C-alpha cells in the first residue's frame, strides 16, 4: 500500500477511496478515531505539541510537522495516542534505509560566521540604521537587497534540500508543498529547520525590519513560514503576480546556474487595492544572484519571470506579526504603506485645500466689493 492511499486527495475524490487501496485502517483491536486520512496541506492554525522526549529513530521535529497533517479527529486525542498513530504511519511508509537523516547537522543550528558573509554579520552586530544602510541597496522604495549567505552555506543547504526531496519521493510523502502557488520545493520547517529559521528571523531579520518596515509590524515579527522554491526544466517555470502571506519577506537565491527568473515588483497594496494599477515609479525588475537577499513587505506585489535555462533555487522566509494582523482588522486607511491609499489621501487633501482656497477667495471677493 502506498502512502497515497492515506493522503487526502486533492480534488473531489470520495472519502477513503484513495487509489483503490482502500482507506488506511488501524488494526481492529485499536480504538478508532473517525477519519484517519492525513491532510494534504498542513493545518497552519494548529500548534503542534513538542515531541523531544519521544524515543524513536525519527527526528522529534518530524512528529511535530506530521501533527499538522493529522485529521481533525486525531488532534483531540491524548498525546500518547497521537505518538502511537504517527509512529505507525512513519513505520509503515518509510522503507528501511531511506529514512531522512540530516546530511549536514551543522545546518540545524544557526552558526552565524558559517552562514553569513562578514559584511552582513557586522551590520547586524552594529545594529544601527547607518550600519544597515551601508550594506543595503534600495533599487526601488521598500525593496532592499544585500549580500547575505556564504557560498558554502548555500551549497550545504541545497544538498540538504535535495536529500530531503529524495526521501520525500522515495516514500511518496506528498504532503508538503511550500505554498498554494509553488508545486516544487519543500517546507524547511517540516524537516527540522524550524528552530534555525526562527533564530534567523529573530536575530538577523527583525533588527532590519524594525528599522525599515515598522508600519507593517516589522518591529513585532513573531512567527515565520520557511521554504525553498525550485524553478527550471521539469519544475515550476515562473510565478504569477501575487502578494505574500507575510508582513516581511526574505527571499535569498541559493543557486545554482540559471538564466532568467527575474523578480518583478509592482508597488505595495492593501487588501482593498491589491488589483489597482501600477504607477511607473513602482516598476522594478530584479535579477537574482546566489547568496544575495531581497527583503520587502509581503504586500509588495511581485512575481517571477520564467527561468529560461538551468535550475534556480530560492529560500523564502515569510515573517509575520500577530499584533499587526490583529490591529489591521480595525484600520481602514493604510496610507503609511499602501501606494494607492497614499494617492487617495493626497487627492483628498488636494481637494480640500482647493475647496478652502475657493471659499477664501469668495470671502475676499465679498468683502472687497
Ligand atoms: Zn490601500
From TrEMBL:
Molecular function GO labels: dioxygenase activity; iron ion binding; L-ascorbic acid binding; oxidoreductase activity, acting on paired donors, with incorporation or reduction of molecular oxygen
Domain of life: Eukaryota
Residue span(s) of domain Fe2OG dioxygenase: 222-321
Cofactor(s) annotated in UniProt: L-ascorbate
Keywords, ordered alphabetically: Dioxygenase, Iron, Metal-binding, Oxidoreductase, Vitamin C
Region called Disordered, residue ranges: 1-52
Compositional bias per record (Basic and acidic residues), positions renumbered to this chain: 1-12, 33-52
Presence of keyword Iron: yes
Signal sequence range: none
SMART domains named among the record's database cross-references: P4Hc (SM00702)
Pfam families (alphabetical): OGFOD2-like
Entry protein name: P4Hc
Source organism (scientific name): Musa troglodytarum (fe'i banana)
Amino acid at each position: 500500500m502506498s502512502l497515497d492511499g492515506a493522503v487526502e486527495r486533492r480534488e473531489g475524490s470520495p472519502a477513503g477511496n484513495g487509489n483503490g487501496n482502500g482507506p488506511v485502517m488501524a488494526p481492529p483491536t485499536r480504538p478508532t478515531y473517525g477519519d484517519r486520512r492525513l491532510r494534504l496541506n498542513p493545518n497552519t492554525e494548529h500548534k503542534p505539541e513538542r515531541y523531544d522526549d519521544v524515543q524513536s529513530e525519527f527526528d522529534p521535529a518530524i512528529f511535530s510537522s506530521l501533527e499538522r497533517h493529522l485529521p481533525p479527529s486525531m488532534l483531540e486525542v491524548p498525546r500518547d495516542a497521537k505518538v502511537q498513530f504517527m509512529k505507525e504511519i512513519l513505520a509503515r511508509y518509510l522503507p528501511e534505509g531511506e529514512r531522512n537523516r540530516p546530511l549536514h547537522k551543522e545546518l540545524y543550528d544557526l552558526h552565524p560566521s558559517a552562514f553569513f558573509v562578514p559584511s552582513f554579520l557586522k551590520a547586524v552586530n552594529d545594529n544601527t540604521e547607518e550600519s544597515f544602510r551601508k550594506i543595503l541597496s534600495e533599487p526601488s522604495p521598500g525593496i532592499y537587497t544585500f549580500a547575505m549567505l556564504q557560498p558554502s552555506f548555500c551549497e550545504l543547504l541545497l544538498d540538504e534540500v535535495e536529500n530531503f526531496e529524495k526521501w520525500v519521493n522515495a516514500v511518496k510523502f506528498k504532503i508538503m508543498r511550500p505554498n498554494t502557488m509553488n508545486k516544487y520545493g519543500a517546507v524547511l520547517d517540516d524537516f527540522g529547520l524550524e528552530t534555525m529559521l526562527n533564530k534567523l528571523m529573530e536575530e538577523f531579520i527583525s533588527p532590519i525590519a524594525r528599522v525599515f518596515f515598522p508600519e507593517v509590524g516589522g518591529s513585532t515579527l513573531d512567527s515565520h513560514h520557511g521554504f525553498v522554491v525550485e524553478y527550471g526544466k521539469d519544475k515550476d517555470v515562473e510565478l504569477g503576480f501575487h502578494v505574500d502571506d507575510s508582513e516581511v519577506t526574505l527571499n535569498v537565491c541559493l543557486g545554482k546556474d540559471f538564466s532568467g527568473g527575474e523578480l518583478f515588483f509592482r508597488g505595495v497594496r492593501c487588501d482593498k487595492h491589491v488589483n489597482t494599477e501600477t504607477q511607473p515609479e513602482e516598476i522594478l525588475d530584479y535579477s537574482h544572484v546566489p547568496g544575495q537577499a531581497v527583503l520587502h513587505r509581503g504586500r509588495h506585489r511581485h512575481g517571477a519571470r520564467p527561468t529560461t535555462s538551468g535550475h534556480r533555487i530560492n529560500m523564502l522566509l515569510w515573517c509575520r506579526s500577530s499584533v499587526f494582523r490583529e490591529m489591521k482588522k480595525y484600520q481602514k486607511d493604510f496610507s503609511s504603506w499602501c501606494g494607492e491609499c497614499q494617492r487617495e489621501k493626497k487627492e483628498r487633501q488636494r481637494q480640500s485645500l482647493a475647496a478652502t482656497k475657493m471659499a477664501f477667495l469668495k470671502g475676499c471677493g465679498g468683502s472687497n466689493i
